[in-house]
Amino acid sequence: MIDSGFPEIKVVFLAQFHPDLGPIVPISVPDDAVDLEQKTYSETSSMNGDDHQGDSGEATTAGHNLALGSLHGSRLTSNEQDRVVHLIKRPNQNKNGNNADDKIDFNSIQTLVIPKITLFERLITAHTGKHKVMCYPIAVEGNYQRNVLIFNMCFAFDIDADTKCYGPVVKRVGCLLKELEIGGKLLSNPAGQRPLRRMMQQLVTKLNTHGEYQIELDMRGISPSLAATGVSIKLFPHYESPVDIKAYHVPVRIIDFGLARLKSAQTVYQTHVGDDIIWDLLLERVIRYIDNVNHVARIARLTQVREETVVLALKHLDYYGCITLVDIFQFSNVYEVQHQAMRMFDNAWLQRECYSYVTGNGEAGDISMYELIGLFATVRDRRSVAEWIIENRLNLRRFDVRRFVMFGVMYGFLRRVYCYPILRTVSAAGGGEVPAESGEPDNDQSSTTDGKSADKDSETDDKAKSPANEAASPEGVLEPRVLQMLDGTHHLDEISVIIDKDTLALYEMLEAHGGVEYLYL
């Protein structure tokens, strides 16, 4: 099979709600890939003190044979329905004694495949055994035995497959079958099973091989109006929506931009390009200052471009996987280790990537790979990076601490614990404390009747807005806009970038003001 870059479809099966037998699977590709056997255990009957302990297996076999063999008016009697016991799934074995976990256990997911009416025409993903099943249940009202036809075309993949690109395909197939049922009775007509099976077989083959599918359904014996119906489906890569980039985010390169510029300039007719490559002018200016240290606000100042425009350029790069975003590295930062860090201990590729990134070019240094990876387990108790270094007596000449932390954040091994300042009280003139207000002065007290006093106030405001006094007045009182951000929704990184001061200076200003508490989240 040609690798198309998309996850492989393992099984495609059609589920329907039979008016007499309930949920059934009339067609599956490949055949016998769905396990319809109902699970019963005789020990359950003995524990409950039932008299029909030996009949439970027979009842299940009878019900299973009815579901598979007789689809024309057969019914389960009330006694048989009482003897069918549904329990938790256990490892099943087929007639040859082999493990049957490779099959899809339909009974464990039938309530999601044939769901309640509130889940109709919604994309559903269910996990069962080693498979991930995606489906889009459909209900068509009309002249049927129960006035409605319920069906669902299901796609099964490996349990760990990334199936986001198949969401539009599963939905399109479900809507297509609904139209074919309304216009030509494809599903309710027994003669429609042959073209439907052929469509499902080619759907698996074409999508797995080429990532696209195109076929004409032969419906001449079913609906003359739909004698030759064409079906076209194509897979497209799935890209996540751009993240919300803030001024305090630090973009980190994860590709070689020089190579990307070269590849984008090459075409089918031009395999060699010169040194003078014309690229997007905004991206050229922004990429120049992406050094894994500068945050968004600083890049905007260096490029002399509006911050909103820089954010748009970075969203474009992030959307196509050219950059990732981390926090501003400082030795006062606090991090905590995540459970994903366990992958470092059994993934050789991650170990090599970490060692190569932290030590520079992957050259053998003073620190061993085993020691470097073991450092992730020592990040605990929400200590700052400086305290962590002192506690573990780390030699900063042996490896790059900033790269170590950055690698952990990028791969989800470490999570930044942000500090949110909250203004509980403000210092009063008499030495007491009063509750913090919104920072807006009283109109009666702030109004002036003298023109000179108003001019003096305007001069004071101009001085307060100067860069030197932008965040605090000479007396150490914080400006109203800083006070408004001390509501527990803005962390220190965000505030420091907005007022253009480092975190240590901001912390000293808050301590001088007083009445500020800190919440770490």
Written overview of the protein:
It is a single chain. This protein has 19 helices and 18 strands. The longest helix is centred in the middle third of the chain and has 18 residues, at 167-184. Residues 39-98, 267-273, 427-432 and 437-470 have low confidence and may be disordered. Helices cover 35% and strands 17% of the residues. Strands 1, 2, 5, 6, 7 and 8 form a six-stranded antiparallel β-sheet that branches. The protein has a two-stranded parallel sheet with strand order 3-4.
Separation of the first and last Cα atoms: 48 Å
Q: Given the helix and strand composition, which structural class is it?
A: alpha+beta
Shape: elongated
Number of helices: 19
What level of helicity do the residues show? 25-40%
Largest sheet: 6 strands, antiparallel
Beta-strand portion reads: 15-25%
Q: Let me know the number of strands.
A: 18
Give the integer mean of the pLDDT values: 77
Radius of gyration: 33 Å
Unreliable stretches covering 5 or more consecutive residues? 39-98, 267-273, 427-432, 437-470
Short account of what is shown:
The protein has 19 helices and 18 strands.
Outline the fold blueprint:
Blueprint lengths: L10 E8 L3 E8 L4 E2 L6 H7 L7 H14 L8 H6 L20 E2 H8 L10 E5 L2 E5 L2 E4 L6 E11 L8 H18 L8 H17 L2 E7 L9 E7 L15 E4 L3 H9 L15 H7 L8 H8 L3 H13 L3 E4 L7 E4 L10 H11 L10 H6 L10 H8 L8 H10 L3 E4 L1 E5 L1 E3 L5 E3 L7 H4 L4 H14 L15 H5 L7 H8 L3 H11 L2 E5 L1
Parallel strand pairs: 3-4
Antiparallel strand pairs: 1-2, 1-8, 5-6, 6-8, 7-8, 9-10, 11-12, 13-14, 15-18, 16-17
Helix pairs in contact: 9-10
